[in-house]
Design brief:
Elements lengths: L2 E8 L4 E6 L4 E5 L15 E9 L2 E11 L12 H23 L6 H19 L1
Antiparallel strand pairs: 1-2, 1-4, 2-3, 4-5
GO molecular function, one term: nucleic acid binding
Protein name: Cold-shock protein
Pfam families: CSD
Length: 127
């Protein structure tokens, strides 16, 4: 199986990119992360399979091999970053709430994305 390191990953957007060991960028969807893993940090070493999609290579069946070392165990997310995440989440919740007022329920993908974001914030607050 190919391996590579996470270049970047956005919990809010639900995707990121891996630089594989051959130097190619590989799309990483949040749905391809291992169960119970909502996000990955840049530099995390991953093992994955690759599927060719219309937009290029995409990682599937992702396994975390090695997470980057933490400078401080159990460190909290930067307060400004956490505040920005919460403000963005409020915007997402407002959009869902407005849709519900008009009889539009979020589709499964939107609901899953919102759940991942809320779990990520809950984890950051509890760290």
């Amino acid at each position: 199986m190919p391996t590579g390191r996470v270049k970047w990953f956005s919990l809010e957007k639900g995707f990121g990119f891996i630089a594989n060991d051959e130097g190619e960028d590989v799309y990483l969807a949040a749905t391809s992360l291992p169960e119970g893993v909502a996000t990955v940090k840049p530099g995390t070493k991953l093992e994955f399979s690759i599927a060719d999609s219309r937009k290029g290579p995409q990682a599937l069946s992702v396994h975390i091999i090695d997470a980057p070392p933490s400078l401080v165990e159990n460190s909290r997310v930067n307060s400004d970053d956490l505040a920005a995440m919460i403000e963005d989440t409020i915007k997402m919740l407002d959009k869902v709430g407005n849709g519900l007022r008009h009889g539009r329920h979020p589709n499964a993908q939107e609901a899953d994305r919102l759940g991942r974001v809320l779990r990520g914030i809950a984890t950051a607050l509890g760290a």
